[in-house]
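Human: Can I borrow your eye for a moment on a structure tokenisation matter? Separate attempts, laid side by side, tell us more than any discussion would. Could you pick a protein and write out its sequence and tokenised fold? No explanation is needed for now; the record alone will do.

Assistant:
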Amino acid sequence: MSEVEIVEHQDISNAEQLVVVQCINIHKVSDIDLQKEYPTCFVDEIIDIGLPPSEEELLQLQSDIKKVISMLIEQGLDMQLPDFEIDTESRIISLWNLCTKVPMSIEMRNKLLSHNSIDDRFEELNNYVQLILKKSFN
């Protein structure tokens, strides 16, 4: 969850508004109290989210994910190879897009989501993909 500050606000038409915001802090929701009229969130502030992986690391991970999906299709998984698009301007979003392409259990998805650090998410996903590759080639 992001704590934001409104930088600019404009009414465009009757029902449309343009709002420009700036992120001030990032918080991880630890609990939500829905017993009151207005829900209350209990949060932990996230200080450091780390650096995104390099473009080369993303391209290597993309290649490994293609190999994993190809092997799973050969073993009978009913899906198509997804289209990949690495955005060099937003490597964080590119990492999230790669996360969505890999078939995985809900536990693994939750494990990826629970990491505060981008570095940790990348390492976790990369280790998962490498584990599948290792098991498939043995």
Notes: The chain has a mean pLDDT of 82. The CA atoms of residues 47 and 134 lie 35 Å apart. The chain has two domains: 2-46, 55-137.
